Amino acid sequence: MEKIKMTTPLVEMDGDEMTRILWQQIKDEVILPYVDLKTEYYDLGLPHREETKDQVTVDAANANKKYGVAVKCATITPNAQRVKEYNLTQMWKSPNGTIRAILDGTVFRAPIMVKGISPVVRTWQQPITIARHAFGDVYRATEYRVPGAGKAELVFTGTDATTFRQTINDFDGAGVLQGQFNKDSSISSFARSCFQYALDTKQDLWFATKDTISKQYDHTFKDIFQEIFDAEYKEKFDAMGIEYFYTLIDDAVARVIRSKGGFIWACKNYDGDVMSDMVSTAFGSLAMMTSVLVSPEGNYEYEAAHGTITRHYYKYLKGEETSSNPVATLFAWSGALRKRGELDGIEALGRYADALEKATIDTIESGVMTGDLCAMWEGETPARKVTSLEFLREIRARLDKALA
Ligand code: NAP
Ligand code: MG
């Protein structure tokens, strides 16, 4: 079979530990035999971030802006222990945080569903995608532990000398205070990313806040979403037969549980943090979640939702063959290649990505899987636990048949 040719390079961001090993295995086993892979390679592994004083992360994010599509391996976010382990000169920032700040995006996470592993919620038949706003609110709040009686006020002084002052509370004893903020520009780009992603994936979009109680703060989110939807997206949604739907967060929670799935749920920063853990756990496992960062300018960064699987890596270093699950990382590759094919008009790349994902799901549905999935397996054939490499070779055998 002739390999599929690419025209524009994919931005390839390599990473750390076990996922770095899986990265190479995925390329060798199920990509390079089929695709004449064209990438611009950035090594975001911690040793190279240290060598370049983290410049490589910034360069990779800028390349993502230049070419539009990137695929990223999981990376270590250093803490004190990692500074020692890797002999770092600085506790480098989270690469995901750096990339997000440069691309200004929204993170979309969706479960990969297979027959034989059922969601805890019985009515869920299709994936639920969580879209999390990743800026501001409680994550950038100013807090104060009130020591005793006194007056707390909210004060704003505009550069044009506008002033606002209102009493928050007259404290008669000790307590706590918190000041949160967000920006219209960030909320707007969050909204546009969500509307764009709904169109890209042809799914309804739900958005929920607590605007009945938070009449300025949350209401601003609601209003900005509605204004942008009416002005820029309503016609496109109508044409595609999809819907934008706003409701209160408590109503949304109840509806999500009763739903069949198959929609995008846009969440404010804190709601998204909490709800994505709830939804992913209810669907099965982080190793079966896709994650993509979409910027309002239409740049895409595909990754796995899990980390570098450190515990498995230490076993691997001792010479053990591990049964780490490569599915989320493999779907990051297929997602990125499909998007590249779409943008460049290379249909063969999209067909290959579809076939690769189908071969992966078929492999699991036939009872062949990594250790993490065995515990959840309810299929008819008993589960056969294989190593990561054996699993990828099983996928390859099915892919060969499909593409023949
Ligand atoms: P983790 O790498 O996600 O792994 C936590 C545990 O979850 C593993 O020990 C393993 O359980 C299970 N697991 C996760 N992914 C798996 C997979 N693909 N296959 C099989 N089992 C899987 O989280 P962590 O140990 O908290 O973090 C490790 C490093 O990853 C940290 O340095 C952190 O900074 C980094 N991290 C990076 C990202 C990212 O780049 N996106 C995200 C999160 C964390 P068992 O050991 O029980 O088998
Ligand atoms: Mg969380």
The distinct bound ligands, ions and cofactors come out as: NADP nicotinamide-adenine-dinucleotide phosphate, magnesium ion
Number of strands: 18
**Arrangement of strands in the largest sheet:** 4-2-5-16-15-6-7-14-12-13
Bin the strand percentage: 15-25%
> What is the percent of helical residues?
40-55%
Average pLDDT confidence is 95
Radius of gyration: 23 Å
| Biggest sheet architecture | 10 strands, mixed
**What's the N-to-C terminus distance?**
8 Å
Coarse shape? globular
| Helix count from the secondary structure assignment | 14
Secondary structure category: alpha/beta
Low-confidence stretches: none
Binding site for Mn(2+): 250, 273
EC number: 1.1.1.42
Keywords: Magnesium, Manganese, Metal-binding, NADP, Oxidoreductase, Tricarboxylic acid cycle
Site (Critical for catalysis): 139, 210
